[in-house]
Amino acid sequence: RLEPKLAEAIVEAAEEVVAGRHDRHFPVDIFQTGSGTSSHMNANEVIANRAIELLGGKIGSKDPVHPNDHVNLGQSSNDVFPSALHIAAVTSAEDDLLPALEKLHEQLEARSRDFDSIVKIGRTHLQDATPIRLGQEFSGYAAQIDRGRAHLRKALDALRELPLGGTAVGTGLNTHPEFGRRMAERLCRLTGKHFVEAENHFEAQGARDGAVRCSGALKALAVSVSKIANDIRWLASGPRFGLGELEIPAVQPGSSIMPGKVNPVIAEALIQVCAQVIGNDAAITLAGLQGHFELNAMQPLMARNLLEQIRLLARATRLFAERVVAGLKARRAAIEARLGESLALATALVPEIGYERAAAIARRAADEERSVEDVALEEGVLPAERLRDILDPRRQTGERSDQ
Questions:
Q1: What mean pLDDT do residues 24-29 have?
Q2: What's the pTM?
Q3: Which of 79, 196, 272, 295 is most buried, taking the most CB atoms under 10 A from its CB?
């Protein structure tokens, strides 16, 4: 226990550190001792020195506040540093990334509704496939983000357990037996987030599996977001000699030499962010392997990369939602002009006339550069009215969502 005045000075000094008022006194590089002891003691010493000043003392002359005995009281880098990582990651993810993903999900859902009436040709293997509604395509993107958010929330649960109270190796030596529980409760009040004392302090300090699991969820999100961004920039390619199905908002001149060119700059920035997140995950995975006995000695790297993953994804997905998805327009005329030309429309004939005959019609349509419907009508495979009903692209997409 500390004297009230001493405790108050330490708390006030710590609050100043949190507010960033003493950042210049933290020169330690992120790549340091693997337990984070350098940064931990740097904080203890800055807080101690500032507390001395607050108490009216002079640093260096019979200091009334000791960084180990008073500030670090009942703690170890081995339980404090990973706890700080958990608190920072959960806070950043819940305050920044999850809201950004919510915004992206909302915009993708909105475009799914806006585009539901537009029938287009689907694509598999980069080749024409059976029809799909543009709204259905975007509903798939929205579902990817929805599932990614759910996986991230689940992964964050592993970070809600705090190693605090385990001290050096998990036994709790030199601290109060209720320190971990009481600190978790107080941190809940301070942050507004949910934290608990680690169920097993030896697992909590000997391994960083929770951070690896969270990084994996962030990697999966990066994969999903990159696929969506790539699809959108491909669908907006051209616009006259590409796919040209979407029109993306122009956010900057797209070329240093070609006037009027609109490049998918925000989508490309997001794809680069996703590559960085995936690279960070690889490093975190390798760092997770370095949990030897009662300590993982790669924690600063894991902290740096995990927090960067969250920060980058939050910024990039929010920008993508606001500056790209919110302003997307469908080029309906260009889509409809190509719809009847697809050879894949012959797929709907298979239940009626068999695979081989439908394939022959598709091949003839390709060879003669005609539509499947024209060839099928000419060959008289089905009555005209029945044929047109079967080959109707909208029918091939299933019922509309508002029917």
A1: 97
A2: 0.94
A3: 79
Q: Which residue of the set 25, 194, 255, 292 is catalytic?
A: 255
- Quick one: average pLDDT of 13-33? 97
Q: For residue 369, give Cα distances in angstroms to 113, 129, 342.
A: 34, 17, 11
Q: Does pLDDT of 402 surpass 60? A: no
Burial class from Cβ neighbours inside 10 Å (0-12, 13-18, 19+) for residue 89 reads: buried
Residue 266 identity: I
Angle made by CA atoms 264, 267, 272, in degrees to the nearest 5: 120
Q: What is the pLDDT of residue 399?
A: 60
125 is catalytic: yes
In a 10 Å sphere around its CB, with 0-12 CB exposed, 13-18 middle and 19+ buried, how is residue 77 labelled?
buried
Closest of 390, 353, 378, 330 to residue 113, by C-alpha: 330
46 in Cβ contact with 20 (< 8 Å): no
CA 328/CA 330 separation, integer angstroms:
7
Number of DSSP helices (H) and strands (E) in the chain, helices first = 15, 8
Cβ–Cβ under 8 Å, residues 387 and 376 = yes
Specify the amino acid at residue 212. V
pLDDT over threshold 50, residue 271: yes
Give the HSE-up count for residue 63: Cα atoms under 13 Å, Cβ half-sphere: 18
How far apart CA 256 and CA 233 sit, in angstroms, is 19
Whether 306 contacts 226, CB under 8 Å: no
Residues 6+ away with beta carbon under 8 Å from 10: 2, 47, 48, 51, 65, 70, 71
Judge whether 35 counts as a catalytic residue.
Answer: no
Question: Model confidence over 43-83: pLDDT tens digits?
Answer: 999 999 999 999 998 877 677 899 999 999 999 999 999 99
The catalytically annotated residue of 77, 86, 117, 125 is 125
Rounded alpha-carbon distances, angstroms, from residue 330 to 112, 142, 236, 323? 11, 17, 9, 16
Pairing of strands 161-162, 196-197: parallel
- For residue 63, the model assigns a pLDDT of 75
Average pLDDT, the chain: 95
Residue 195 in contact with residue 160, Cβ under 8 Å? yes
Cross-strand pairs, 128: 123
Label residue 238 left, alpha or beta by phi (over 0 means left) and psi (-120 to 50 means alpha).
Answer: left
**pLDDT above 80 for 253:** no
